[in-house]
């Protein structure tokens, strides 16, 4: 550990930074962000005098104490130092030279005849037309819980701070939810279970297809013998997506075939992607992003085109997009090694390949109206420009892509698609600053005070109090299960004086209803109360899971109490004055479901996951509008699985000067979470001065020898009112 005092030069200003080199470069970037408002992922830092780029490999203990912010990414534009520009130019020149040599070599090894290439493509041009069949589309739509996916799409946008999305943004969010739903609904088949007893089967070769199987394009039928009852089970490889909507099983061919139908059924411009090295997936055009998006239903991965070359270590050659509107070579979207790919493209020459694709595309577009044709041709030109830019743009080294996850392990290893880490998933070591959309969480926690106060004042026994909470929970469950646009639940007002009437507690539930964007109204006969929406449905959809989790926890906590009194109305039973609506930066995160803000969303099932955090990582919380807070307590909750990833040792620090210096607020060692979703509460014994930056430095996880990861279900910070 070396303490340094840096001076950072930016534009016409200088910023002093006190820094501990043990914290790593990302913490330094965040400190600079706090002072300059330049986001960490847009910073280029060099040492003053020799313009040496400061990177993760730089020895921060020995470099100059004068640093300069020389490159700022704004709207995609980046200023570079001379040394960086020379390096970039040299790399580009080498790449172009290698591509030219590969192209020349291809002229000698590639077949001049394009017949074989066309033979492999043309059958699929007819197959994708099945996606345009109204009968198939309607059959697909009927199986989709459309309202549920719409709700999840809107909630996902709201959690990013987008509470009033444009239609294009809603459409893209729905597409991603459709992908995630399909991943959960469709089943991968290694060997099918026995049709008779459900036990394991082993391959027995191929069989002759039945007429009923041929009717849905199953020209190949695999046979499997049960290891228990010896029964033969047939596995027809259906090519008709109509049948796949029914069976919901298969391998990558069936997955991509069926998912592309689902995409077309909901109106997305979709393409079936054929990878000549034996894989298939889908692309859809996003009007929100203005480009084609990679979607792999087998892996549940979206917009990660480098998945195959970088994650699976695939040696790509041809990646062809096929749709009702034509055929396109999109290989350049999926590679950063075009000169190597060129050396493997030997089926035909590039000029012959382009001629075949032009012919097939003209055939598909021959009957289109001129204005439609013109729009498609413009989109084609824009895509070609994008592909060329992508080819020579630097790869994002901070993103870690997994090996193949679908399929049996031995099969994946045999295909050399296993990757380097069996448990690897999409993750990033260069996280953006994320905004916490969690004001509703704080409001929900605060709303329980009036209800608990009434329990104490009315001397309600603990068992009766739990009954009331369970009744409230049942009402919220009914609301959650109702259609999100028209949520409504009815509560009967029990007149039996021997029981606790809901009417007795309705006045104290006003804060909870307000936090959930709900309202109550009595019926004309005054015998029931209707709970319904009072505002945007998305606000209620966002808040209901939080309230249900909070109620479950409150019931658990109350069940441990012998009685309720005024002393009970304190932390941790009451979780008042929770800090909210700040921004978060972490040392790393899992994409898309384990991002840093997941630790602050109030939902048990979500979590922040740091892929490389087992031996040390950090997460920094910046208060809204730089408001100063005096922390008096905090809580951590274990995540849903993998106890070995629970934090064991950590330090909580606060800063009031933008991260230049830090004060220790609390330190814990040898902490053990005995259960999943277990919340541990900690009071800060010496709160000290106020701060607007709070940093957790997690030093070790529960079992550092069995995992590289750290994960947390939730982090809650509580402030003093004084």
TrEMBL record:
<dbReference type="Pfam" id="PF01841">
    <property type="entry name" value="Transglut_core"/>
</dbReference>
<keyword id="KW-0479">Metal-binding</keyword>
<dbReference type="InterPro" id="IPR038765">
    <property type="entry name" value="Papain-like_cys_pep_sf"/>
</dbReference>
<keyword id="KW-0862">Zinc</keyword>
<comment type="similarity">
    <text>Belongs to the transglutaminase-like superfamily. PNGase family.</text>
</comment>
<protein>
    <recommendedName>
        <fullName>Transglutaminase-like domain-containing protein</fullName>
    </recommendedName>
</protein>
<feature type="compositionally biased region" description="Basic and acidic residues">
    <location>
        <begin position="384"/>
        <end position="395"/>
    </location>
</feature>
<feature type="region of interest" description="Disordered">
    <location>
        <begin position="384"/>
        <end position="406"/>
    </location>
</feature>
<feature type="domain" description="Transglutaminase-like">
    <location>
        <begin position="244"/>
        <end position="299"/>
    </location>
</feature>
<dbReference type="InterPro" id="IPR002931">
    <property type="entry name" value="Transglutaminase-like"/>
</dbReference>
<dbReference type="GO" id="GO:0046872">
    <property type="term" value="F:metal ion binding"/>
</dbReference>
